[in-house]
Design the sequence.
């Protein structure tokens, strides 16, 4: 299988501090990879660097994304090319309804892809269908974007956005954080419905628990800015027992 | 949310996306032969204007009296705006397209170049049926100093509504003009109102008879075309007992390097149980990115809820002008009368806005509501200045004020200056104010979802203004939303 995404020896700074220290990963189309690691290992930085957030400076390495040089692209160009980041802390935009936001985003992405924008009626049909698939009530579409949403609602809303934007590659950044077990199940079911042979997913999490629901093809352990071990789903279970201590110790010894 | 609303939002962002560096699309100059007054201001200028308009003696005397008073007054200096001293002797006070000299008898006789100008502005001066479900809109177009045409007059006349140019009202309905002119904004009310009273040229006149619900939206479009010409329009709207009307004004001007003065007066009179909704989409030329040129918009707008249960609602979307000095106000004289002020004031580049409202509670159980949304970008200054005043006899008066400011970038300023004064202990006054910034996180969130930076700003600002935008007549909400996006072009780097 040819890789859909090839991250090669990626280095990145936040301010003067190097956070990613030679991170490499290859993902094929349709694969689900999980990245696990302790606090401060650089997991969230990885998601921001891949999605192009300002303030995260790439100092070395490269990323090939669906045949393109990712690092040179603006955040919106990456979105148009099919990248989606489900935020750990989704932002509120007061006064803008969820529906308006979804429509603006979808049409921006469609424009970016050189596709026709959807008119109001077609969009409404499209989004209602997506919402129904994920069990999202109409009421949530009419509310202001993430304003007054519970933690679970915010995360479900991220998944709804993902369903509407139909990305080729999605990063779930600690999507399980702050969720109770019921919310976790609902959100995971949503993600599983969106799994497809032409959509790769990178799941970033501290805990094995999420991976009970979203079964990854590969699991990687990240420590100190790079991948220190890779394996199958069984690696996650192992980690749950052992913790991250051994990896951190190994890093210290190597330093 | 309705599909129509969704489509508006969509248009907003696509409109912003379409712009390629050209912020102000109304900046063209029309090549129209004009009949202008000699430069300068003295009694002869006023006599000239009055003669041009074939006014009765009482109106000339009224103007001359205003002029006398103006001579004794000085520019107000309390507003937080800074502009060079205006040389009132260097301006022309009257400019009319030559083709208007004999006055067109109907819209068919209007100079085609003028019609093309309004067409370019997107304003139909040809009467046309609107789409199903949308109310008809009657338009009065004021070009420099004169009204060039009013649509749907015959249809309005059937229900007794008078909608015409101010000059025409003076000729056709002198008793109404004489009764109400200056009854809300006295001629010596303030420096700019006195100047306007002396030299006002044209504007719109509306009278809604008792019990009549005006069958369509009324609107006036003001256009300043001539260089070095001040525009001093005068608008008078009277809603008789139990009458209702919704009125909208729009304003644009060419891009010119020099500043142009616009000093208008708007008077609203609402009698018992009458309801006036007055909306403004002000898009005068704001000057260029370095603050060169643009309109000085020094306007006095006041509504009088003269009798019981009258209601006046101001909605304004202020995006243009180099300097804005404007406080649409309500005198709540009648018991149980209601005043409302909904405002969006956007300043970008070097624009200066000092705007707000006054709510004067005189009658019992009067209530007022103020919702102000100020958005400052670039190096602009944006002030909300409001006064809520409850008189001793205004038992049970209520006011709710909410002032929200949104800052874009770190070189602009927003100020909130509320004056609240009550002389009646039974009054209830509430004031809320917030200041926020568009955060980098919000911007990144939008861009990660595919929005360009300016599209993201337009979306966030439209959300911030939602409460006010929703208050505009549907027909104009689209335009206003687009304007919000356009006026913030270049505000993110």
Sequence:
């Amino acid at each position: 299988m040819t890789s859909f995404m090839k991250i090669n020896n990626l280095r990145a700074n936040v301010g003067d501090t190097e956070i990613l220290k030679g991170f490499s990963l290859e993902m094929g189309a349709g694969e689900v990879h999980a990245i696990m690691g302790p606090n401060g290992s650089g997991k969230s930085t990885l998601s921001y660097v891949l999605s192009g957030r300002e303030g995260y400076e790439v100092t070395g390495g490269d990323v090939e994304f669906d045949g393109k040089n990712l690092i040179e692209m603006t955040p919106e160009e990456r979105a148009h090319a099919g990248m989606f980041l489900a935020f750990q802390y989704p932002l509120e935009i007061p006064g803008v309804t969820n529906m308006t936001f979804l429509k603006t985003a979808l049409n921006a992405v469609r424009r970016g892809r050189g596709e026709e924008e959807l008119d109001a009626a077609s969009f409404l049909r499209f989004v209602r269908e997506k919402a129904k698939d994920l069990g999202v009530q109409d009421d949530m579409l009419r509310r202001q974007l993430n304003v007054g949403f519970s933690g679970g609602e915010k995360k479900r809303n991220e998944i709804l956005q993902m369903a509407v934007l139909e990305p080729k590659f999605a990063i779930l950044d600690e999507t399980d954080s702050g969720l109770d077990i019921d919310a976790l199940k609902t959100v995971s079911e949503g993600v599983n419905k969106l799994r497809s042979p032409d959509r790769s997913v990178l799941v970033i999490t501290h805990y094995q628990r999420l991976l009970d629901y979203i079964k990854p093809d590969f699991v990687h352990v990240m420590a100190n800015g790079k991948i220190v071990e890779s394996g199958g789903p069984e690696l996650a279970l192992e980690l749950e027992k052992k913790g991250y201590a051994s990896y951190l110790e190994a890093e210290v010894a190597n330093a | 949310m309705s599909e129509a609303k969704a489509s508006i939002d969509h248009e907003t962002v696509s409109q912003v996306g379409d712009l390629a560096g050209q912020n102000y699309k109304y900046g063209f100059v029309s090549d129209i032969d004009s009949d202008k007054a000699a430069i300068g201001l003295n009694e002869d200028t006023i006599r000239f204007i009055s003669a041009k308009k074939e006014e009765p003696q009482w109106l000339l005397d009224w103007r001359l009296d205003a002029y006398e008073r103006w001579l004794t007054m000085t520019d107000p200096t309390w507003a937080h705006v800074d502009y060079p001293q205006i040389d009132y002797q260097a301006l022309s006070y009257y400019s009319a397209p030559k083709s208007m000299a004999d006055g067109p008898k109907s819209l068919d006789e209007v100079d085609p170049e003028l019609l093309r100008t309004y067409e370019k502005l997107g304003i139909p001066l040809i009467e046309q049926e609107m789409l199903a479900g949308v109310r008809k809109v009657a338009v009065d177009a004021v070009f420099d100093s004169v009204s060039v045409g009013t649509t749907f007059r015959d249809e309005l006349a059937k229900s007794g509504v008078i909608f015409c140019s101010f000059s025409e009202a003076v000729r056709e309905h002198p008793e109404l003009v004489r009764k109400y002119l200056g009854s809300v904004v006295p001629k010596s009310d303030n420096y700019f109102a006195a100047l306007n009273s002396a030299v006002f040229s044209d504007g719109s006149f509306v009278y809604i008879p008792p019990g009549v619900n005006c069958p369509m939206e009324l609107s006036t479009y003001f256009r300043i075309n001539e260089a070095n010409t001040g525009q001093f329009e005068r608008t008078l709207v009277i809603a008789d007992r139990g009458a209702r009307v919704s009125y909208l004004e729009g304003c644009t001007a060419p891009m010119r390097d020099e500043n142009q003065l616009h000093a208008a007066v708007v008077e609203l009179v609402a009698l018992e149980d009458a309801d006036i909704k007055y909306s403004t989409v002000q898009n005068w030329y704001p000057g260029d990115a370095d603050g060169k040129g643009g309109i000085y918009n020094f306007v006095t707008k006041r509504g009088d809820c003269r009798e019981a249960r009258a209601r006046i609602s101001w909605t304004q979307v202020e995006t243009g002008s180099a300097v804005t000095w404007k406080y649409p106000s309500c005198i709540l004289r009648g018991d149980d009368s209601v005043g409302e002020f909904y405002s969006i004031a956007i300043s970008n580049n070097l624009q200066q806005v000092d705007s707000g409202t006054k709510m004067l509670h005189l009658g019992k159980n009067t209530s007022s509501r103020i919702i102000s949304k100020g958005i400052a970008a670039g190096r602009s200054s944006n002030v909300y200045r409001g006064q809520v005043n409850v008189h001793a006899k205004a038992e049970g008066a209520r006011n709710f004020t909410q002032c929200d400011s949104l800052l874009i970038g770190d070189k602009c300023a927003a100020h909130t200056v509320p004056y609240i004064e009550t002389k009646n202990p039974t009054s209830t006054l509430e004031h809320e104010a917030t200041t926020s910034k568009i955060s980098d996180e919000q911007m990144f969130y939008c861009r990660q979802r595919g929005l360009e930076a300016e599209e993201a700003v337009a979306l966030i600002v439209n959300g911030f203004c939602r409460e006010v935008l929703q208050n505009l007549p549907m027909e104009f909400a689209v335009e206003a939303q687009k304007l919000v996006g356009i006026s913030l072009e270049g505000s993110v780097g």
Observations:
- The first strand of chain B starts at residue 34 and ends at 36.
- Chain B touches chain A at residues 1, 3-7, 9-10, 13-14, 17, 439-442, 444-453, 455, 459-460, 462-467 (CB under 8 Å).
- Residues 1-22, 128-134 of chain B have pLDDT under 50 and may be disordered.
